[in-house]
Design brief:
The chain is an alpha+beta fold. Helices cover 59% and strands 16% of the residues.
Length: 64
C-alpha cells in the first residue's frame, strides 16, 4: 500500500490531502528514534529555554 494515501480534503473538497497509512506511521516512529537525538543536539541543543519556546510557538503558527 505504501506510506501515504490521497484523500479528499475535509476542509476543501477541491483538493486532496496526503494521509499516513499504518505502515507510514510505523516508519515515522522508527525514523523518529534516529532523528530525535540529532535534532536535539543540532537544533534545540544550542538554544536556551526561552528560544526553544519561541521556536515552538513559531512552528505552531506555521502548522496551524
Amino acid at each position: 500500500m505504501g506510506y501515504l494515501t490521497r484523500e479528499l480534503s475535509r476542509s476543501d473538497r477541491r483538493s486532496t490531502d496526503a494521509v499516513l497509512t499504518d505502515e507510514g506511521a510505523a516508519a515515522l516512529r522508527k525514523a523518529a528514534k534516529v532523528l530525535a537525538p540529532a535534532l536535539k543536539a543540532h537544533l534545540a541543543g544550542p538554544l536556551n529555554l526561552d528560544e526553544v519556546r519561541t521556536l515552538q510557538g513559531l512552528a505552531a503558527r506555521i502548522t496551524a
